Amino acid sequence: MIVHPIPPFYDNDSRILILGSFPSVKSREMMFFYGHPRNRFWRVLAAVYEDEFAETVDERKAFLKKHHIAAWDVISSCDIIGSSDASIRNVIPNDLSVILDHADISEIYVNGRTAEKMYKKYTEEKTGRRAVCLPSTSPANAAWSLGRLTEAWHVISGSKKENI
């Protein structure tokens, strides 16, 4: 059983909550979300918000804060082999009230189908809130180009970009 080591990232000004399933090995080593260099999360967000690519953990935290984004994962602990979502077993979900009771979150988004499945199974009923599923930014989701991901993820900024 691996326990999620990264605390939720949010503040009172957070308006959007983005949830992954469980942090990858690289993210756990880095102690922040989407730490694998091939994960396109940070590139997609930079493109969506037309902002600089955040490279360091401090830059990434500043980026999220600037854009009023909270980040965490659906799963608090589980059995997992490496970073494989397909291997996830024995799930214990995170208690999202930690964020939802302290920030005026208007939208909840999940990064990929595994996060969506886990959210629906363990969390949606507790929060009473629907989450919008966005295509996974994981390198395992190779069918989605950076441009296609960016177009799909534009929903988080409240704008829809054409021809990206």
Write up this protein.
- With 164 residues, the chain is of the alpha/beta class.
- The protein has one domain (2-156): Uracil-DNA Glycosylase, subunit E (3-Layer(aba) Sandwich).
- It is 31% helix and 18% strand.
- It has six helices and seven strands, in the order ββαααβββαβαβα.
- The strands form two sheets. It has a four-stranded parallel β-sheet.
- Helix 5 (113-127) links the parallel strand 6 and strand 7.
- Helix 2 (41-48) packs across helix 6.
- The longest helix is centred in the C-terminal third of the chain and has 15 residues, at 113-127.
- The chain is globular and about 40 Å long.
- Mean pLDDT is 94; it is low at 160-164.
Strand order of the largest sheet: 3-2-6-7
What name is given to the CATH topology?
A: Uracil-DNA Glycosylase, subunit E
Overall outline: globular
What proportion of the residues form beta strands (DSSP E)? Answer: 15-25%
CATH-assigned homologous superfamily: Uracil-DNA glycosylase-like domain
